[in-house]
């Protein structure tokens, strides 16, 4: 478990050491990484671990920005590294003129739907959803009814993310927060009466399940209404002292976890609120980022960032630094993903040469070329390309009339499509 830091002391020796560490560059190195006591104590070479820690804490206290929620004081430091990452995100994730990410206007909807699916899957898997990405994507694309709690969690997350994208300019109110939680928790809680409702007791703790140790005790349930009202005001309005929007979004994420206003689903709600705040404040590319995928892969660091903050006098810089690193990784991952998808578009380009085949139909042919056993439905095509069901059926029927597809009857009304027996011969006949 995480070791609590010692009580630091301020004296002449502390500030002399602070000056020395600042001048030799070690202070910047430590604060850019925002190391915690458990690592700092081993770096002490020119002084005792306590003196070292006191000098580091002096630097952080001097530069800290203070904020209050209820009767609790929080702080954070805008280190050089935080400023660097915030600037990176400003350049690449926000702005009104777009980004050099390389998303063609015609592909934006397709990429957005795919990213929302990834975010929904990863955010749910972090909270215990147990299913494969392939199966989860198939469920969402074909709008299949969830068959388990895990699948329901993922579908809920997907519906919630779509709702946020559609209502991203709205202000946050306690009622809308409850609605978000209701969407996220639908049919997944042991007690359905707890869906979209603030907890009404204090029988809830954040526990390390490896040893049953309580690592966070949320505020009393009687404080929730006041704290949520303060958080909504923080979400909707500018503060007297400027806080960068990205840092504010991260603080909102943290505060939902700290307040823990619901019996379950706090993590998913917190991440959803972060997306909402970022989109509301013009960081449009957030729609395409799958931040929860990175968090899921670094869950231990995510949890430690929460714990370091609470143990070290509510210093949120630990969580802010971690979150900004996650956003940077998510953006890099998005660029790589778009690069792969653009290659797929190029690979599908040969099918566009076939007479009477449009761009969507060319991509369908590419899917069938790579996955001969694939079964397609009009609903899946509708969701994949964000088109009407009429258009999806027209695309599939056209490919059937050209001989690429065969219909298979599902029931008296519904039918799906599979690759025809002559698919390869027909493709070859066009000498692509």
Task: Write a short abstract of this structure.
With 432 residues, the protein is mainly α. Helix content is 58%, strand content 7%.
Can you offer a commentary on this structure?
The chain is mainly alpha-helical. It has 3 domains: 57 residues; 257 residues, Fic-like fold (Orthogonal Bundle); 77 residues, Winged helix-like DNA-binding domain superfamily/Winged helix DNA-binding domain (Arc Repressor Mutant, subunit A), CATH 1.10.10.10. Helices cover 58% and strands 7% of the residues. A 3-stranded antiparallel beta sheet has the order 5-7-6. Strands 1-2 form a two-stranded antiparallel ribbon. α6 crosses α8, α8 packs parallel to α12 and α11 runs antiparallel to α12. The radius of gyration is 26 Å and the shape is elongated. The N and C termini lie far apart (61 Å).
Number of structural units classed as domains:
3
Radius of gyration: 26 Å
> How many runs of DSSP E, i.e. beta strands?
7
Give the strand order, joined by hyphens, for the main sheet: 5-7-6
The level of helicity is 55-70%
What do we call the CATH homologous superfamily of the largest domain? Fido-like domain
Tally of separate helices: 19
